[in-house]
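Example 4.3 (complexes with small molecules)
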Amino acid sequence: MRLAHRLDGIPPTVFTAMSALALRTGSVNLGQGFPDVDGPASVLAAAERALREGANQYAPGPGVPALRQAIARHQQRHYGLELDPDRQVVVTTGCTEAVAASLLALVDAGDEVVVLEPYYDSYVAMLQMCGGVRRPVTLRAPDFRLDVDELRAAVTPRTRFVLLNSPHNPTGTVLTRAELQAVADLAIEHDLVVITDEVYEHLTFSDDGTPHEHVPISTLPGMFERTLTLSSAGKSYSLTGWKVGWATGPPELVSAVLAAKQWMSFTSGAPLQPAIATALDEEPDWPRALARDLQARRDLLCDGLAKLGLDVRRPEGTYFAVTDISSLGWKDGMEFCLALPERAGVVAIPTQSFHDSDAGDQVVRWTFCKESSVLEEALARLAASDLSG
Ligand code: GLN
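Answer. The structure with glutamine bound is encoded below.
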């Protein structure tokens, strides 16, 4: 079957392909980012209760009021943002739908969108489906910081949007206030709308006593009115399969998301929404505790990978670490990742498919959202294997 041109050259998502490879080969899966321990029991119980109590028909299109109110309180509690839950919050089927609906609603064919590279794969697929033109700005090894000159150079008279992601998957960079200010200055100067994916907002770490704190770009002066902020409960509450996400921002941008979303999923999972409201209101500290716990697992994985001779970037946030594999004699991350199950019984994610440039050819991503025993098993397998290229 010939696919429509809007899907030309878009392969199946690498995450699914690598998880299937892990299953097929019995490998430890440090590829796709999903935790092996579920989120809070109270939240699971709330979903169960909602199912039993009859929350089983269509939820309202913008999301159940209790969840929209809880999202507004979340933005207030963490960032001091005051949102009207009726006009400034919409619930989506995961952040992936929020990204899709935002781009479908706002990007016209030929519009240019500045996007951080390496990019999350759904951004590229959705931009292509909209006919949008991506203008990548590369976060480069070894420190994966935003190059403000490169950012400025990416903007042309046809640029209308910046698609941001911080904390950044896959590099683990948390954009600093200064970096965000550079994006904000540019957005204001060129009248751009910023669409920002902040799903790892609570999964940030501290190094040398300094927290790599997540700052939503919408909190910078002059930015709220031009920013669509996207997030979800999946990462914060270890419920990636629930697919409950949201978009917040000024009413015009939020209603644009709803205008597209209504024709996509129509409404999102009814019994899960009150349960996520419970999570946000009654388990507000759960994500920070998860982040503290993840930091120990980050260090376990990063120290282990470094011992194997890999150049490791210790991430500031997310649950991924990237390594440069050239020190082991490899030129191509995909070849390395395809050889890894057979050589070592471990799966990781090559990042070159998240680039237009060749900056990711030797960069491989590993997740540490697995239990310590799983990480130890993976490291033991790697240590017992010939990893040379
Ligand atoms: N966000 C997850 C990751 O980066 C994967 C989600 C997906 O498979 N689409 O690993």
